[in-house]
């Protein structure tokens, strides 16, 4: 019975170990396949390009948001419909809000990625130096040797580039894996880094052979000092000694340090090595790994975008609700836009107006801006132009100012229709009076040789007139003017 219990407990333990093993994430296969300074450099260059592209994408996203917000703001000014002007103004406010978020994100990415790029550039430079100087070898500087006169000889040597490379070139990081495949930088868990103090370990090792001896077989073996190696060597004859040079790769040929980026080797694990990276004397390899890890995390932060907007996503958006509550008369009775019960009506309007799915929203509030549907009145000519076709302030004002002018004309015409009819009594009262009787107190003025009613001046009798239609008549007449101002 006890044996069964032991076996059962062992099985459970093995199962737990198995689960733990499976739970560990795997490193990017391309990073794992680095086996030489050439591979390390190819991976570093690819990683640098990846991070630089992420920073560029963030800036492009910010520029796109800024442009979209400007287009919606222009559409709000160019629209003939007061309701659509409010709708576009709400979208412009939303785009501006997203732009503020995108600016913060882009700045964070730029700063974090910038630090990583700076250190990746330094590491790529270190590897460049290794690949260039590591293949140097020694050569005799012929006819420049000299005896010292003190039982010794100076042998003159020089460094030259050899034909033996430090490693086989790797053109780009996609060549590291077999079969070839792009690296998965977001899965990077371990980075191989050659530190500056490891450079010499990767240099080619030169060997100098001294020849021309009559005999040289007193000692055999290896690992001898120079005295022991030459102890029984005698020169064959004057001037017959020779120097030859060979070189070989060191063993091991690659001595980079493997640095872990994240705790627990998890793709979503927290970046480690912060203490070593931020100390007064930071560890070169660990600082690079830490900065790369932080840059990878920051570059994966979701960027704000208008591409997924719709009535469904906008109906609870605070800035959209606020804009429409203030702009549209039918919603101005709402006291608190943060109260879901009070805002129910405006939320239904937003969902219906801006459509429930993002494709319909895109068609009606983004793609439509590409159509030549607005009159652009320039200095001499007029033409139909799209909002997205505007390329400068001159073109923008040609559309916006023309639309504003059309609205002003309509408002003036409406004001004339709604204005009270001229007081014919006052006109008659002043008409035909001689200059001496043309008094301002009667609302008259003598002008152009005639006595006329003075505009904007009430006579004394006017002040005493009773409004038989009721006090509300004035408000009703002026209401359209008030609405016109609200819709601007």
UniProtKB/TrEMBL annotation:
Signal sequence region: 1-15
Species this protein is from: Trypanosoma brucei equiperdum
InterPro entries, A to Z: VSG_C_dom_sf
Region (Disordered): 417-471
Lineage: Eukaryota, Discoba, Euglenozoa, Kinetoplastea, Metakinetoplastina
Coiled coil: 48-108
Cellular component per GO, a single term: plasma membrane
Biased composition (Basic and acidic residues): 417-465
Biological role stated in the UniProt entry: VSG forms a coat on the surface of the parasite. The trypanosome evades the immune response of the host by expressing a series of antigenically distinct VSGs from an estimated 1000 VSG genes.
Protein's recorded name: Variant surface glycoprotein
Membrane topology value: Lipid-anchor; GPI-anchor
Keywords, sorted A to Z: Cell membrane, Coiled coil, Glycoprotein, GPI-anchor, Lipoprotein, Membrane, Signal
Location in the cell: Cell membrane
Main location: membrane
């Amino acid at each position: 019975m006890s044996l069964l219990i032991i076996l059962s407990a062992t099985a459970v333990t093995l199962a737990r170990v198995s689960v733990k093993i499976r739970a560990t994430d795997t490193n990017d296969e391309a990073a794992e396949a680095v086996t030489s300074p050439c591979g390390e450099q190819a991976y570093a260059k690819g990683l640098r390009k990846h991070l630089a592209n992420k920073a560029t994408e963030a800036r492009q996203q910010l520029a796109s948001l800024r442009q979209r917000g400007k287009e919606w703001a222009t559409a709000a000014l160019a629209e003939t419909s007061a309701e659509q002007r409010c709708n576009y103004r709400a979208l412009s406010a939303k785009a501006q809000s997203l732009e503020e978020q995108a600016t913060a994100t882009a700045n964070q990415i730029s700063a974090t990625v910038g630090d990583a790029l700076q250190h990746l550039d330094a590491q790529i430079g270190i590897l460049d130096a290794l690949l260039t100087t590591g293949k140097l070898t020694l050569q005799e500087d012929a006819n420049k040797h000299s005896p010292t006169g003190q039982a010794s000889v100076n042998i003159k040597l020089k460094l030259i580039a050899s034909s033996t490379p430090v490693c086989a070139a790797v053109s780009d990081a996609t060549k590291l894996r077999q079969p070839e495949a792009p690296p998965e930088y977001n899965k990077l868990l371990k980075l191989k880094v050659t530190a500056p103090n490891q450079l010499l370990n990767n240099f080619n090792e030169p060997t100098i052979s001294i020849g021309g001896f009559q005999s040289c077989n007193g000692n055999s073996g290896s690992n001898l000092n120079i005295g022991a190696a030459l102890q029984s060597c005698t020169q064959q004859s004057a001037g017959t000694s020779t120097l030859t040079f060979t070189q070989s790769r060191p063993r091991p040929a690659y001595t980079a340090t493997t640095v872990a980026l994240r705790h627990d080797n998890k793709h979503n694990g927290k970046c480690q090595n912060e203490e070593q990276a931020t100390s007064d004397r930071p560890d070169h390899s660990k600082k690079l790994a830490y900065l790369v890890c932080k840059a990878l995390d920051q570059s994966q932060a979701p960027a704000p975008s208008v591409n997924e907007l719709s009535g469904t996503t906008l109906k609870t958006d605070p800035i959209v609700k606020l804009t429409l509550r203030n702009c549209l008369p039918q919603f101005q009775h709402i006291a608190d836009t943060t109260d879901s019960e009070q805002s129910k009506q405006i939320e239904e309007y937003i969902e219906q107006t801006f459509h429930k799915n993002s494709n319909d929203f895109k068609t009606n509030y983004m793609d439509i801006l590409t159509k030549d549907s607005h009159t652009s009145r320039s200095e001499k000519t007029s033409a139909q132009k799209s909002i997205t076709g505007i390329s400068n302030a001159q073109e923008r004002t040609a559309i916006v100012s023309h639309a504003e002018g059309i609205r002003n004309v309509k408002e003036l015409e409406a004001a004339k229709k709604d204005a009270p009819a001229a007081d014919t009594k006052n006109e008659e009262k002043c008409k035909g009076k001689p200059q001496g009787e043309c008094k301002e107190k009667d609302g008259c003025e003598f002008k152009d040789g005639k006595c006329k009613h003075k505009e904007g001046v009430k006579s004394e009798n006017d002040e005493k007139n009773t409004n038989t239609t009721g006090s509300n008549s004035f408000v009703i007449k002026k209401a359209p003017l008030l609405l016109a101002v609200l819709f601007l």
